[in-house]
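Researcher: I'd like a structural prediction for the single chain below. Treat it as a standalone chain; there are no partners to consider.
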Amino acid sequence: MMRNDLIAIVMGRNYASRLGMIRAAGLAGCRIVSIQTSRKITKINKIDACSKYVVKAVMSIEPDKKDLVDKILKFKNQNNKNILLPTDDYTASVIDQHLDLLEKYFLMPHIFHTPGRIVTLMNKDLQKKLARDSGMLVAEGWKAKFENGQYRIPSNIIYPCFVKPNESYKRPLKQLMKKCQNEVELTNHLKQVSKVSQNDMLIEQYIEIEKEYAVLGVSMENESVIPDIITMKSDYLGVTAIGEISNIDIIQGLKNNLQNFMKKTYLTGLFDIDLYESKGRIYFNELNVRLGASGYAVTKSQINLPELLINYLLSGSVKHIDETRNFKSLLFANEKTCLAKYTSNQWSFSEYSEAMRHTDFSFIRDGQDDVPFKYFKKEELKSRIKKCIRSFFRR
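Model: Treating it as a single chain, here is the predicted structure.
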């Protein structure tokens, strides 16, 4: 369905995530504005800006929330409401916190059209409670609160444990995560955390992970579509580099539990649920209240989740979705993450090239929208040259 009068504003920092959302919304008939967020002033990234679906690309500097909101408001339409599609926690939290203003002009993810409700749902304590109530396994957890200049450590922690921020949208994030073997390690780590953050930290019982999964879908308040499950085959800093997408029914009963979980959130929007497997049992890890980095894999498997959300936001009704497709498991590559594994010396160039060759599809290379891949190849060449120069000077 062509919607030449409708603009979808895709926003976020990761160009691969933006590009996947751009293509999905473009296939739904929307014209696309890309708002690229960054922690420093930089040039517009052409990899997603040059997609055939994009009519305009602009930059917004994090964490200037006002700047992002002002950039969004430049694309308001007095006659028809355009669509807001965040691709990361930061942009999702900003539009949720400014929902009262933005909803006058835009259609967007929400919970009961109430500002701050999506941000509240980003709280991992709340997510774990809802997951338990929905019949899923969840690791034991405790909260470390910042009081009187230091973190207060609960006395009943089971070691080893794993520390991570309790709210995923607050920066910084990755560097605060750590496995701690005992109370001394935990105390020392939280001392380091306190130098950069005084937000609550979540301490979880450490469970050895055998497999990691991502489940992506769209929630329409009381109903959700959850067609597939992604098995991580290789990753870089927790983001899937090589993954396998399969129908979610390969794991009996999982879809029903996840649908019950999403019903308790009352979310209208896209989502990504992280799971992991240990000793044959599947555990809930966290909910991302936006489409995850692997979201385009579901679009390639012939279920366009952003289009389903757009249709629901426009009509307010849920249409029957035929999730029946004739496909077996498919292997895919996220080129951006694969390139990061190569540049960080986790892969040689031959391993990187081999991984890319033996997948059924990838995120950036697309015959129907081929210019982004040409710019990605330039990025790849620059990365190879920089790596060779670094290697030369080390020798």
